[in-house]
Automatic annotation (TrEMBL):
Transmembrane segments: none
Protein name, per record: RNA helicase
Catalysed reactions, semicolon-separated: ATP + H2O = ADP + phosphate + H(+)
PROSITE patterns: HELICASE_ATP_BIND_1, HELICASE_CTER, Q_MOTIF
Gene3D superfamilies per the UniProt record, alphabetical: P-loop containing nucleotide triphosphate hydrolases (3.40.50.300)
Keywords carried by this UniProt record: ATP-binding, Helicase, Hydrolase, Nucleotide-binding, RNA-binding
DEAD-box RNA helicase Q domain ranges (all copies): 232-260
Region feature (Disordered): 1-137
Cross-referenced PANTHER family: ATP-DEPENDENT RNA HELICASE DBP3 (PTHR47958)
Basic and acidic residues compositional bias, start-end: 16-28
Species this chain originates from: Diploscapter pachys
EC code: 3.6.4.13
Motif Q motif in this chain: 232-260
InterPro entries: DEAD/DEAH_box_helicase_dom (IPR011545), Helicase_ATP-bd (IPR014001), Helicase_C-like (IPR001650), P-loop_NTPase (IPR027417), RNA_helicase_DEAD_Q_motif (IPR014014)
Length: 625
């Protein structure tokens, strides 16, 4: 055992580096022999899927179906006019519903600081285009020759302008969009799973009870012993009165869906192992916190429950939940087993609940001998999907489990995860014996319900003008604008702010609490537009986003001529969450960006038509769908 712990220590450096922003080093422990555990898994799956298996349906309604909603909201007229900017005149024959209140439009489309282009002839294809001097600003709805992008000068000719130098582009506003960088800053890369998990913890102040969802409960192995009953109130559960009191104070009126099904199993006798999956913010932490608090004996002053989390910050977040729930159990205490906490060998731990990272917990059990594994009654692995991304964490978790299970065969082991894909399933099944599996899954269909378009802009600067012209339309619902770099995001946000508009900005150099604040403000509607980079492209659930703008297309890190398909999917997946309708608009400003969009179109096999600003019908169609 001593050697085992020593070997495991070598992975600790790697795993403990897993604090935010620190890449793991290549110090991984030798692989743990594959567990001999052959598991019998009962499985209760709560999901929305269709299957031939017997299904019990809970919940009402069918909110999984795409909800018809107005893409740009408000009146079409307001949308059209505001999106095209003052100075736009509809082409002949275009359908414009009468504006019942032109003054209202004028106010909404032209807030303080807005400099509309002067009214001018409408000769075709430019958003925000006014007088001839302003041609070239904003969108070009102008000609495309098949696959090719027609350069501005040639477009002028086709539009009836004389050949010659391009007209001056920015007569009223002076700006110059930042050039794309040669190398991607690591702050512009998507957030790490640890960061996403932590950010989500900051974000979720209230649980998604999901009471109105159409939920199926599926019993894979119909075990008559299996406790397929649910708790519709916390009082249905055998919780200590002090805990019930704390839940009242915390405003927990009724259990969330995962709690409804997991808690009766978690609290039953004899203790039952569990693998539980449900998306972020659905009440998982509260579930296992209640399990630990219910099993801990307050009058016994030694460690009894262990909870593993991938980072220090996540451990602290869990600890705060446990403390709040234990506020009327003064004898129950929490200790954090995290790096650099100053705890040495020989310290007598009196706390019943120890929460920490696998590396440090490994020390506590091994070389520091601070925890007696035979006294452990509950072992929790939280954020299993994040944890398994590091081999070191996997190995250490396995080692800790084996040590505790050997010394305390009745230990209740619980694994919680926000996702449940194959690697998590394999890890969970390898790790935990005889577990009941409770999974709650909502379909997150990104593509089918998202309409994708591209819009031609004459230049990088033209993209900015396009945003300005679309701005009022964007603010009628909530929109996210993705840029390639944080510099572009900051620049764009500054430009828009200078026009008197409000926008939220989020990039990878901001600390997590600031990022959470920006997202919270966006979710609360303080800001209707969020400008961000790939840092925010995945993991964050902002369900009301209706429009995603790819100001710059997502490109492969090593070859900027190739799209980053995954990131594209994740970016546009910020809209169209859970069956809602959404729109993704891709800005194209040169042949390269056009080709990137064509490749994306071919890759996903979904058409990305050109959104022609002259084509009122297309925009109306967006609005009507
Ligand atoms: N039954 C409940 N009633 C009201 N609020 C709840 C309930 N359960 C949890 N919450 C609150 O909802 C928020 C999200 O819950 P929790 O952190 O347990 O979710 P989670 O699934 O663990 O999310 P994450 O994966 O982000 O950690 C928390 O602020 C929590 O205090």
């Amino acid at each position: 055992m001593g050697d085992d712990w020593g070997a495991a220590y070598s992975s600790q450096v790697a795993t403990e580096r897993n604090e935010l922003g620190l890449a793991p080093k290549d110090e991984t422990p030798p692989p743990v022999p594959a567990s001999s555990l052959q598991q019998q898994m009962q499985s209760i799956q709560i999901n929305n899927n269709k299957s031939n298996e017997p299904v019990t349906t809970f919940g009402q309604g069918s909110s999984m179906r795409p909800q018809p909603q107005s893409s740009f909201g408000m009146t079409q007229n307001a949308h059209q006019q505001s999106a095209f900017g003052a100075g736009f005149r509809p082409p002949d024959g275009a359908r414009f519903p009468a504006n019942p209140n032109p003054n209202a439009f004028a106010r909404s489309a032209q807030p303080a600081g807005f400099l509309p282009p002067a009214a001018g002839p409408n000769r075709g294809g430019h958003f925000g285009r006014g007088s001839p001097a302003q041609r070239g600003r904003g969108y070009s709805g102008g000609p495309m020759n098949g696959n090719g992008f027609i350069p501005p000068q040639q477009q002028q000719q086709q539009m009836g302008y004389p050949m010659g130098p391009a007209p001056p582009q920015f007569s009223q506003t002076h700006f110059s969009a930042p050039k794309p960088p040669k190398k991607i800053d690591e702050n512009d890369l998507p957030m790490s799973p640890e960061e996403i998990a932590l950010l989500n913890k900051f974000l979720h102040n209230t649980v998604n009870l999901m009471k109105d969802e159409q939920i199926d409960v599926r019993l894979r192995q119909n075990d008559p012993q299996s406790p397929l009953h649910s708790a519709t109130s916390f009082r249905d559960l055998r919780l200590k009165s002090e805990i019930l009191h704390a839940l009242d104070v915390m405003g927990f009126v009724r259990p969330s869906k995962i709690q409804e099904f997991a808690l009766p199993i978690l609290l039953m006798e004899p203790p039952t192992n569990m693998i539980a999956q449900s998306q972020s913010g659905t009440g998982k932490t509260a579930s296992f916190a209640l399990a630990m608090l219910s099993r801990a004996v307050p009058s016994s002053h030694f460690p009894q429950c262990i909870c593993l989390a991938p980072t220090y910050e996540l451990a602290v977040q869990i600890g705060e939940v446990v403390r709040k729930m234990a506020q009327f159990l003064p004898e129950v205490k929490v200790h954090y087993a995290v790096k650099n906490n100053g705890v040495r060998a020989g310290t007598k731990l009196e706390e019943q609940i120890i929460i920490g990272t696998p590396g440090r917990m490994n020390d506590y059990l091994g070389k520091l001998q601070l925890i007696d594994p035979s006294k452990i009654t509950v072992l929790v692995l939280d954020e299993a999907d994040v944890m398994i991304r590091q081999q070191g964490h996997q190995d250490l978790s396995m080692r800790i489990y084996n040590a505790i299970e050997t010394a305390s065969p009745g230990v209740q082991t619980l694994l919680f995860s926000a996702t449940y894909d194959q690697p998590v399933i394999e890890f969970a099944e390898k790790l935990i014996k005889n577990a009941v599996s409770v999974t709650l899954k909502r379909e997150d269909q990104a593509l089918p319900n998202i309409k994708q378009y591209f819009v031609e802009c004459i230049s990088r600067d033209g993209k900015y003008q396009a945003v300005v012209n679309l701005y009022s339309g964007l603010t009628m619902t909530s929109s996210v604008i993705f840029t390639h770099t944080k510099h572009s995001a900051m620049w764009l946000a500054d430009q828009i702010k200078m026009r008197g508009y409000k926008v939220a900005l989020l990039h990878g150099e901001m600390p997590i609490p600031e990022r959470a604040q920006a997202i919270q403000d966006f979710k609360n509607g303080v800001y209707k537009v969020l400008i961000t980079t790939n840092v925010c492209s995945r993991g964050i659930d902002v369900s009301q986003v209706t429009i995603v703008i790819n100001y710059d297309p997502p490109v492969n890190e090593s070859n900027s001529d190739e799209p980053d398909y995954d990131t594209y999917l994740h970016r546009i997946g910020r809209t169209g969450r859970f069956g809602k309708a959404g729109i993704a608009i891709n800005f194209v400003d040169d042949e390269r960006s056009l080709q990137l969009i064509k490749k994306i179109e071919a890759h996903f096999g979904k058409p990305i038509p050109k959104l022609d600003p002259d084509d009122m019908n297309a925009l109306e169609a967006i609005n009507e769908d």
